[in-house]
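ASSEMBLY PREDICTION REQUEST
Request ID: AP-0331
Submitted by: J.K., bench scientist
Number of chains: two
Total residues: 603
Priority: normal
Notes: Please return the full assembly, not individual chains.
Input sequences:
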Amino acid sequence: MNRPMTLGEKILARAAGLKFVSPGDIILAKLDLCLGNDITAPLAIKHFYANGGRKVFDRKRVALVPDHFTPNKDIKSAEQAKLLREFAREQKLLYYWDQGSCGIEHALLPEQGVVVPGDLMIGADSHTCTYGALGAFTTGVGSTDLAAAMLIGQAWFKVPPTIKLVFTGKRKADVTAKDMILTAIARLGVDGANYRVLELTGPAISSLSMEGRLTMSNMAIEAGAVTGIIAPDKITRAYAQRRSQRRPRYYQSDPDAKYERVEEFDVSRLEPVVAKPHLPSNVVPVSQARDVVIDQAVIGSCTNGRIEDLREAAKLLKGKKVSPRVRTIIFPATPAIWRQALKEGLLEVFMSSGCVISPPTCGPCLGGHMGVLAKGERAVATTNRNFVGRMGHPESEVYLASAGVAAASAIKGRLALPREVRGKDWKKGVKK
Amino acid sequence: MKFQGKAYTFGNDVNTDEILPARYLNTSDPAELAAHLMEDADPNFAAKVRPGDIIVAGSNFGCGSSREHAPLAIKTAGVACVVAGSFARIFYRNAFNIGLPILESPEAAAAIKSGQEVEVDAAAGRIRNLTTAASYPVKPIPAFMRELVAAGGLMPWVKQQMEKKKSDHKG
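STATUS: Completed
Returned structure:
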């Protein structure tokens, strides 16, 4: 008899060599991939050597992405990046990128087909949950777990219960995947999905592009979730077929799979939102926060630094200037996105409107470099966290929003809706 | 496994950016990290915390980033253990992996005030507030996890186990 499972449980069962798993089971599972960056991998490499590590378990299944403080922001970061570079060379890692080819890990790995549908993967970065959008089970861990994974290619998991989120209805103009996930986090709370999987389903998910789906899965961790998984469909297959470096596996949840609970969201009722300081769950409609004056607008990151986001921002910025009091920073998430934006003339639009364009890096999102805030300053950002001090001084503030809201706000000098900066005939341009 | 120390309290959803701001993550040297412990929640914390002190916080302690530097800085500063209403998943795993004992007790988290003297018995599952003489239930840390903490974390524990196996084999 086949017992029903969710797609996440099927991936865990397959990787553990079991026919069936259910929430609460503790399993030891084979990893398809593990990941570290220039902040977390140095500690993992230390652990690796301290425990007799000589060779990684498989040089094709360890990915190192120096993206956080690169191009190196100071001598100490340069030393950390050097440690990664030397380790990658010594171990002959297949997946290591340096400046010129390196991008933000969670945009780069799916784009390059390094992580594929059906994978079980851990990454020493909390936003490793991003690849759930591909129908993979991927989750953030610390450096010790990464070190163990590099040594033996396995990790233990307690099978988490799953909360199913069903998104129905048709989005209004200017309502994006970012607004959908922020709304969900507001309802669940920042620990509402702690030690749980979020399965994102429904017609309003099916109608999202892969880029929108990656934005949603990316922020599953902001509700505490292990991962934010989306069942693969035509869009997933088309995305994966073009780029996968390994054979994808497509899993679906059984119709009678067990969920801890189900939450429904009617997206037709949503309007563009922002998450106010200092929690991603602190969500209000932009229309109720239009008096918030800003000093900086940041458009990019692993959450919203893909080509669709840049197009959305450029459409609003074209032929306009950002407010002279708003420093507007665009950071495309990968070199391929950067090049695409160049080809499409988006970078020209950004330059002409007074923005500055950064190389691909995590940069200001975590207050690293390339746009750190001073005391009392306030930013609107398309990033994922607005914790105290996240983008700089502990007394600075971050408002999280979509690329459209960030671009409109940059023009207005305060939080603004995209329609506030469009001409009267803007509706002609909106896709039906 | 018993700890006794002065409590420092924090609220709900204390995230890893508050425990250890990303601007200090350009190093993985534990002492350097510990010098900035809790800086964005309490700028004076690193200067006043003493070995043996205990952090007491609300729910979802350690949410946010996966940086293992956060529990590492807490341990290196000499904090004996963290008691919270609940912990975020990645932090929970990281804490034991690097050998920092942590315990969940919503009752203790709600009642204990900063500056009070607290005794934690991790094996028996009891927290006593020595200042008020109140006591609170807490899930004990199981024997295997206590062993892991005593070894200094998962990696040193694994090494010990492997060496034990080797010497058993020889013996």
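REVIEWER COMMENTS: The mean pLDDT of chain B is 95.
SIGN-OFF: pending second reviewer
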